[in-house]
Specification:
single chain, 384 residues, alpha/beta, seven-stranded mixed β-sheet, three-stranded antiparallel β-sheet, 12 helices, binds pyridoxal-5'-phosphate
Length: 384
């Protein structure tokens, strides 16, 4: 059966081992075997996050865990700083507004990184701010924000730091403790390479202090106090407040074992090799990059259209004629850029080659004289 190859920022195509794990027999989300699976998964996540903080695994999407972190650590009326250089930052602003927080939103041009200066100025202008929420990999533009220069300074200033690492954790280095991150949120269906349904977050001791000091009611499922209560009181047989997607937990355990056995450095290098092959190939075909290489994430590539090429048409024909799915630009960037994901099986040579040859085929169908294979200029180092 021929399937569409996913070269999108997530969800991703994943390997046979994870597919088999998803098909494992049904099991309960409590009891001895479950506790072993659950705690081993938490321990592996601590290694990946490079943290001594607690790790919570919640059923639901990444946005849910971001909302849980924000809601649990703040009271209505408190101020939160959310630097904005893209769609996912604005999503955080919307969540904060829904929680009746006062938002301070320093603006940075889309396609450019958030700088430490911008954040420092916002903190100085708003000494009342309680928290900073920031996106690591702004997937809508593919910019990797330089967190290592930003979260430590916010932490130093006494703010609670909340990081949207939904599309970056597992794909680029992100040492949570060293970078002063109180709440680091990711999902299982991006660089952790399993199907959607699980969100993961770390909560630091300062994060728990803020949660315990909070007075306002903040619901039940999304209040991390609830999660702490279950971990502490039911932790030896039923560690979460609700039923968990058990097959996904088996898959997450499997995927993390693979990643840690293989070594994260090797995985980072594989993503970077895929990004390099795609970028060099697009350049050979005359498509300019949207983001400067210095702050472009190795997990997704955004490229600009060249004269005579319509973004929607290229995206559609890649899917219909070449069986390759990529993503468009979101909101203002629609029609201006296209985005190619490098996570999951998209890091492999057959995916990268299928995409590049698909773009070549498109150009030839539209009357251009492109020699076959003209885009296959940097395939070295790609995983098989
Ligand atoms: C994918 C993504 C999200 C949204 O994740 P959901 O699981 O759909 O809630 C949030 N932030 C970033 C940076 C993302 O890439």
């Amino acid at each position: 059966m021929s399937r569409t190859k996913l070269l999108i920022p997530g969800p991703v195509d994943f390997g046979e081992t994870v597919r088999m794990a998803m098909a494992s027999p049904s099991r309960p989300h409590y009891g001895r075997d479950w506790i072993r699976l659950y705690t081993e998964t938490q321990e592996m996540l601590k290694r990946l996050f490079q943290t001594k903080s607690d790790i919570l695994i919640m059923a639901g999407p990444g946005t849910m865990a971001l909302e849980a972190a924000m809601a649990s650590a703040t009271e209505p009326g408190e101020t939160i700083i959310i630097p904005d250089n893209g769609f996912f930052a604005r999503r955080l602003v919307t969540v904060a507004e829904g929680l009746q927080l006062k938002t301070v939103v320093p603006q940075v041009e889309e396609g450019k990184p958030i700088t430490a200066e911008v954040v420092r100025e916002a903190i100085e202008a708003h000494p009342e701010a309680k928290a900073l929420a920031i996106v690591h990999h702004e997937t809508s533009t593919t910019v990797l924000n330089p967190l290592e220069t930003i979260t430590p300074l916010a932490k130093e200033a006494g703010l609670i730091t909340i990081v949207d690492a939904v599309s970056s954790m597992g794909g680029v280095p992100l040492p949570v403790d060293a970078w002063g991150i109180d709440f680091c949120v990711t999902v299982a269906n991006k660089a952790l390479e399993i199907p959607p349904a699980l969100a993961i977050l770390s909560v630091s001791p300062d994060g728990w202090k803020a949660i315990e000091a909070r007075q306002a009611a903040r619901g039940w499922y999304l209040d991390l106090k609830t999660w702490k209560w279950y971990a502490e009181n039911w932790g030896n047989w039923h560690p979460t407040p609700v039923t968990m997607p058990t097959s996904n937990m088996v898959a997450l355990h499997t995927s993390l074992m693979q990643l840690l056995d293989e070594g994260v450095e090797r995985r980072y290098a594989a993503y970077a090799a895929a990004a390099h092959a795609v970028r060099a190939g697009l350049e050979a075909l005359g498509f300019p990059p949207f983001v400067e290489e210095a702050y472009a994430s190795p997990l997704t590539t955004a490229f600009l259209m060249r004269p005579g090429v319509d973004a929607d048409e290229l995206q559609r024909e890649l899917k219909e004629q070449s069986g390759v799915m990529i993503s468009g630009g979101i909101a203002e960037l629609h029609g201006k850029i296209l985005r190619v994901g490098h996570i999951g099986l998209a890091r492999k040579r057959d995916y990268v080659v299928a995409f590049l040859l698909g773009v070549e085929d498109f150009l030839r169908r539209h009357g251009e004289d492109v020699p076959y294979g003209a885009s296959l200029v940097a395939l070295e180092g790609l995983e098989l």
